[in-house]
Hints:
There is one protein chain. The chain is an alpha/beta fold. It has two domains: 7-113 and 255-279, Rossmann fold (3-Layer(aba) Sandwich); 117-247, 3-Layer(aba) Sandwich (Rossmann fold). Helices cover 33% and strands 20% of the residues. The protein is built from ten helices and 13 strands. It has helices spanning 30-41, 57-62, 91-96, 115-125, 141-153, 166-170, 183-189, 233-240, 249-264, 270-279, and strands at 5-6, 16-22, 45-51, 69-74, 88-89, 101-105, 108-112, 134-137, 159-163, 176-179, 192-195, 221-224, 244-246. A seven-stranded mixed beta sheet has the order 1-3-2-4-6-7-5. Helix 4 (115-125) packs across helix 9 (249-264). It starts with a strand and ends in an 8-residue tail after the last helix. It binds NADP nicotinamide-adenine-dinucleotide phosphate.
Amino acid sequence: MQRHQLYIDTPIPPSRSCFLIGHPVGHSLSPLIHRAAYAALGLDWHYGLMDVLEPDLPAVLAGVDGQRIVGANVTIPYKERVFRLLDDCTETARAVGAVNTVFVRNGRRTGHNTDVEGFLSPLRERGATDPRPALIIGAGGAARAVAHALTGVLGWKDVTVAARNEATARALHGVGFTPWDERSSAAFGADLIINTTPIGMHPHEDASPLPADQPFRVEQTVYDLVYAPAETRLLQSASAAGASVIGGLPMLIGQAAAAFRIWTGQEMPLEAVRAALNASDTFGGAR
Ligand code: NAP
């Protein structure tokens, strides 16, 4: 018996599908984002959710044929485990050590990581890609994508990671390490501060990865990958002190837009996607 589930809620099978593979997948915003984009462009495509148990992972991935099932997103807990089940991967996926997007290239199922491009998209939009001292708070999966984006793609040299787990932080390529207890002073000295921990995420909106009395400078940019709420306590404090802030939504949309471009060959209609996210009750009025 197949244990994975494909929720297709369109009355007529669409011409093409993409889906999200993970366990669990129920809270993902990817269907909302991709379906809004398909609708805006009039594409007869569908984006489904696949809640997959590990024994079914090979069969599910084998279904990605680049034709009717064009591609897939991959989320927890399979971002690292899918490598061995794919024919190929991009340099970016290899550098990050995680796959979040699967597509078919020259007949080969290929793993890629669009978190890197998604993270960079709001920095590029602001023209904020010139090297600056940066502090990454946290050393998990998202931090790996952020570290590669800053050091591998942009070539920044002065990037430090503050984490409570020193070994995980030191495993990140091209970055320095700051002990967790010293993150406040390290943050004050950095021009770009990026929170990659879930601290401050719903339902813990009162929490922040930096102290409540953290001083900020107006020259600083504070980037929080948390997207629910859209403006975290960290961003509220930084903004009140005059620093520039970037929330997690632009990255969320940016990583989806990069996958969308690979699968459809078209640009994601960002205004339609933002409107769909605004109309949803996902952020509970926290925007
Ligand atoms: P992850 O792999 O579990 O990594 C989480 C990191 O945060 C780890 O280094 C962990 O440290 C640290 N951490 C967690 N709680 C902590 C605490 N109380 N004190 C100190 N450190 C703590 O998770 P992830 O996949 O990187 O995701 C992290 C966050 O980024 C989530 O909120 C996720 O929603 C968000 N995210 C957003 C986007 C976007 O598109 N906006 C994309 C990816 C991720 P330990 O190893 O010591 O536990």
